[in-house]
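User: Um, what's this?
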Amino acid sequence: TVQAGDSDTDGIGLVGGIDLNGGTIKDSAGNDASTAFTSPSTANILVDGIIPTITNITPPANGLYKLGDNLDFQFTFSENVNVNTAFGTPRVALAVGSSTVYATYLSGSGTNTLTFRYTVQSGHLDTDGIAINSPIQLNGGTIKDGAGNDADLNFTVWPLSGVQIDGVAPTISNLGKPADGTYPANKRLDFRIFFDSPINVSGGVPSLLIRVGNQLREARYLWGSGGNYLVFGYRCLLYTSPSHETG
């Protein structure tokens, strides 16, 4: 029976004759059997009892990952391995905040490096760093070398303090409107949109649509980036046509 660590890549060999090892081999008359023989060719009988092991893990780069971002984890093995996902897909458990989520096998079968991917989902949050938990879970799949040896999927639990997750999208918590009253031409109406966490504005000028009489107008973003609320302003204009509002 092949033992762990046994290896022969150019063919096994039969050495000497049968070793009696304290026993006997006799015929019914009691004659000792000859234990010598001519060995057949065994050059194509190979042995691989070397179990693949994880030699390195490459985590995602340090940073803050938002909703929809992909985090790739690369596991390097001591030899090429094959992944079979016919009955399930291997995965790696991650500690994200107080939740357990999974990086699922993505690619690499036939090589010595397998990639597992986790995509940040809505509500996932970890501000002090995630952790990779051992072992790789087969989850119905298999990870084997070319000889069919099951890979050793254990590794040291690894905290990643620099990899942080924020999959919690800011939501509007309140809306501040202008004071009640009649506003004349050139008077600006300010609207404050409050969020449940700080937000930043970039790459354009957001606006609010306002219905004034039978017309749609824009209250355009004025300031607030970096804080918890944004200010949008609409300035009433004076129109001479009776078919338009007059401020």
Observations:
- The chain is about 0% helix and 40% strand.
- The CA atoms of residues 134 and 155 lie 6 Å apart.
